[in-house]
Amino acid sequence: MTLHGVIAAFTDAERLTDAARAMRERGYHRMDAYSPYPVDGLAEILAMPRTRLPWIVLAGAVLGGAFAYGLILYSVEIDYPLDVGGRPLHSWPAFTVIAFEAAILGAAIAGFIGMVVANGLPRYYHPVFNAEIFTFAKGGGFYLLVEATDPQFGRDATKAQLRRLGAASVAEVKA
C-alpha cells in the first residue's frame, strides 16, 4: 500500500496549534488537523480557504424569494386575475410574507446542499481511518496529519520533527 501521510497525536489543543505553526514555519503546506472541538487560530495556521457558503445561502434566499414572488405575480395578474373590492392586482404587502418564507426555505435548502458538497459528502472512507492512533473512542484527541504529497515530506524526517514538537504518538497513514 502507498503512504498517505504521517499523523501525530497531541495531548491538548495548545500543543496541536504550536506543532501546526512550527510545521508551517518549516515549509510544510499539505496538512490537516482533527480535534473534538474548534481550536482558535488553527484554520489560519493551516491556511484553510474561506468558505463560500454564506454566498450560496444568500443566492438560495434570493432565488427562493424571487421565485415565490414571481409565481404569485403570475397567478394573480396573468393566470387568474380577480378584482376584489377594487384593489390592485399587484398588492405587494400581501405577497411579501409568502416570498419571505420562500426565501428562508431557499436559504435552508441551499445551505444544506452547499454544506454537503463543500464537505465532499457522503464520504464513507478516508485514509486517516487506517491509523490505529486515530480514534475518538478513548475520549477524543488532537491530531495533525502531514500528507505525503507535501514537497517537504520525508517519512523519517517528518516523524522525527513531529516527535520533537511534543507528539504523544506518531504513526504512518496508509492510503
List the uncertain runs. Answer: none
Subunit organisation of the chains: single chain
> Gyration radius, to the nearest Å?
26 Å
Structural class designation: alpha+beta
Largest sheet: 4 strands, antiparallel
Mean pLDDT, to the nearest integer, reads 92
Numbering strands along the chain, what is their spatial order in the largest sheet? 2-3-1-4
Strand content: 5-15%
What general outline do the C-alpha atoms trace?
rod-shaped
CATH class of the largest domain: Alpha Beta
How far apart lie the N and C ends?
Answer: 6 Å
CATH topology of the largest domain: Alpha-Beta Plaits
Number of helices: 5
Integer tally of domains: 2
Can you give the helix content as a percent range?
A: 40-55%
What is the CATH architecture annotation of the largest domain? Answer: 2-Layer Sandwich
Order of helices and strands: EHEHHHEHE
Strand elements, count: 4
Describe this structure in words.
The chain has a four-stranded antiparallel β-sheet with strand order 2-3-1-4. The chain has five helices and four strands; from the N terminus they run E-H-E-H-H-H-E-H-E. The chain is of the alpha+beta class and 175 residues long. It is 46% helix and 14% strand. The protein has helices spanning 13-25, 42-45, 53-79, 92-118, 155-164, and strands at 3-10, 31-34, 142-147, 169-174. It has two domains: 3-48 and 126-174, Alpha-Beta Plaits; 53-118, no CATH class. The mean pLDDT is 92. The protein is rod-shaped. The N and C termini lie close together (6 Å).
